[in-house]
Amino acid sequence: MKKQTVINPLKIDKNIITRIPPSPTGLLHIGNVRTFLFNYFFTKQKNGKIILRMEDTDKKRSKKEFEEHILESLKWLGLSYDGEIYRQSERTDIYKKYLEKMIEEGSAYISKEDSSEDKRAEVIRFKNPNKIIEFEDTVRGKISFDTTELGDFVIAKSLEEPLYHLTVVVDDFEGEITHVIRGEDGISNTPRQILIQEAIDAPCPQYTHIPFILSPDRTKLSKRHGATTVTEFRDKGYLKEAVINYLALLGWNPGTEQEIFSLDELIEKFDLTKIQKGGAIFDIEKLNWVNKEHIKLMSDEDFRNKVLEFLPEEIKDLVNSNEKVFKKLLPIIKERIEKFEDVVEMNQVGDLDYYFSQPEYEVEKLFWKDETDSVLLKKRLEKIIEFLNEVEDFSAEKIKEKIWDYASEEGRGSVLWPMRYTLSGKEKSPDPFVLADILGKEETINRLKNAIEKIDTNNQITQGI
RNA sequence: GGCCCUAUCGUCUAAUGGUUAGGACAUCGGCUUUUCAAGCCGGCAAUCCGGGUUCGAUUCCCGGUAGGGUCACCA
After folding, report:
1. Which three-class secondary structure state does DSSP give residue A27?
2. A15 partner at 20 to 30 Å CA-CA among A81, A99, A148, A216?
C-alpha cells in the first residue's frame, strides 16, 4: 500500500494563529479557562498569535456583565491576547456576504418553515451534500462521520442573524486560524463546520479536542460542586500560578515526574499530543496541595501582602500596631494555610490574636495532664523566667538550649506545657520556644508573671481566703 | 434511541507487546515532639468484562458493559 505524505500541522512552527472564543452568556467556567490555557501554552510556545473572539450572536442571552467577567478572569490569570477583542455581533455584514454568496452558489437556501411555536417563517439552511467527513484530531486520531443524518441544518435565522456554525467557520477562515483547540463537545460539531468550509472554500484547521473537567460524581462540573469560576478561586485566596498549574495538569502531563510549574515552564513544555483522552475529575485536595507548593515559592514580601489582603479588619489594627510580632508570625501562618482564605479561619478560632494581646484562659488548664500541685507549677514558671532572663540572643533556638535540660529533668510536659499554655492560652499552638521568640523577651516574661499571679489569686479563692 | 468519543490505584496520571504495573494527591502507620502544624520515612491501593492476535498483552483487533458528547431558528 502506498503511504500518503501528509504535512503534520503540529509540526508547523510559523504563522500559528489560534483563538479563544467564549460566549458571554454566563460566568466564565473553569473548563473554558483550561481550554484557553491549552490554546495559550501552545500558541506562545510557537510564537503565534492568539485572538479573543466574543461569540455573542445570541442577542438574548449575551450580556455585557458576562463579557466583563471573561475579561476579568483572563486579566487575573495574566493571559494576554493579540489585537483587539473581536465581537461577532459587530460582524453581521461580513456573515451576510458569505450567506448571500452561498445562496447564490446554491450551497445554502432560504427555507420556508412551519412558523408555529415562535419560530420564523423563513430561515437559511445549508444544502447538505450528504457525504462522509473524515478529519484528524490531535488527541483522538481519525474521526469519521456520515453527515447525511445532519440533514439541511440551519446556518442563519436571516441574512442579518447568522448562527454559530456559520460564524465560527467564517471567522476562523478570515482570521486565518491554523489550530482549533476546544472542548470535546466540539467533536460532533466539526463535521458540520467542515462541510461549510468546503462550501466557502476555506481550509481546514488542525483540530484538537480536549476532554471535559468532571465533578467527583463524574457529571459535568457545576455550581453544585463548589467553585466553577477562577474569580471564585481568586477570592478564596488561591494563587493564579497554582490555578494555572493545576488546570494544566488536569488532562495533560509532560511525561516526567515534575508537578509544579511556572507559566513559562508550561509554555516551554506543553505538548498537545500528550493530552489525555478521557475526562478528568476536578480534585480540590490536589489543587490545595499545588497552591501550598506555590505559596512556598512566594517571596516574603508577596506573602506578607497577600496575608494582609485577606486578614479581617478587626485583627488588622492589632497587626499594624505590632510590626515586629507580625513579621515573625508570618512563617507560622505560611506553614498552616493552604489558601489565603484560611487566615480568616485562623483568626476565627483564635489562632492569631494571642500573638498580639494577652490570652484569656483558666488556671486549671496550666497543669500538665494529672498534675495538681500549684506550688510546684509556680516554681517551674519562676524557674523559666529565671532562664529567660539569662538568654542574650532571644531566639527560639537559644531559648530551647537554655530550658531544655531543666525541662528534661522535671519532665518535659510538666515544664513546656504550662509555658506554652501561658503564652498562647490554647490547647494547640506552635511550640513554646517559637512562641517566646515571636512574642519577644519582655512580653514573654510578662505573660509568665501574669500566670503566676493568676495562680495565686486562684489559690486564695479556692482556699476561701 | 441514532451517531461520535472515552475506560490503569479513591483522584490526577506513567508505562504503547516482555516492568515486582512507576509517581503525585488523599488515606493509614512510624519518626520528630509538651500540644498542633510542617517535615522525613514507610504501608494500603489499579490495568471494566469477554473473546481473539501473539511465545507473551495495560498496550493491537472485535464484542459487551459503563460513562460522556451530539442530534436547536444556543454556543
Report:
1. coil
2. A99
Pick out the nucleotide with least CA–C1' distance to A123.
B73
pLDDT reported for residue A100: 98
pTM of the model: 0.94
Set out the domains of chain A in order of their start, with CATH numbers: 299-342 (no CATH), 363-462 (1.10.10.350)
- State ipTM: 0.96
Q: Which three cell numbers stand for residue A213?
A: 473537567
The alpha carbon torsion through A455, A459, A461, A465 (nearest 10 deg) reads -130
Q: For residue range A281-308, list pLDDT tens digits in order.
A: 999 999 999 999 999 999 999 999 999 9
Q: Is the dihedral of CA A330, A336, A340, A342 positive or negative?
A: negative
Smallest CA–C1' distance to B72, residue = A154
A258 C-beta less than 7 Å away from strand B: no
Can you read off the three cell numbers belonging to residue A263?
Answer: 507559566
Which residues numbered 138-177 in chain A sit less than 7 A from strand B, measured from CB?
140-141, 143-146, 149-150, 153-154, 157, 163-165
pLDDT, tens digit, for every residue of A301-345?
999 999 999 999 989 988 999 999 999 999 999 999 999 999 999
Angstrom CA distances, A430 to A289, A330, A332, A435, A465, stand at: 22, 13, 8, 6, 37
| A60 pLDDT more than 50 | yes
Q: Is the CB of A135 under 7 A from strand B?
A: no
Q: What share of chain A is helix, strand, coil (3-state, %, to 5)?
A: 55, 10, 35
Task: Give yes or no for residue A408 having a pLDDT over 90.
Answer: yes
* Contacts with A272 (C-beta within 8 Å, 6 or more apart), sequence order: A10, A38, A42, A138, A139, A181, A208
Minimum-distance nucleotide, CA of A212 to C1': B68
Which of A84, A85, A70 lies closest to A36 in space, CA to CA? A70
Cell of A124: 437559511
Q: Which nucleotides of B are covered by protein (CB under 7 A)?
A: 2-8, 10-15, 22-26, 33-38, 67-75
Q: What is the pLDDT of residue A373?
A: 92
Reported for A106-115, long-range contacts at CB under 8 A and 24+ positions apart, including other chains, are: A107/A199, A107/A200, A108/A155, A108/A199, A109/A152, A111/A152, A111/A154
CA A192, A195, A201: angle at the middle one, nearest 5? 140
- What pLDDT is stored for residue A11 in this prediction? 61
Give the type of residue at A47.
N
pLDDT digits (tens, 9 = 90+) for A175-186: 999 999 999 999
Nucleotide nearest to A111 (CA to C1'): B73
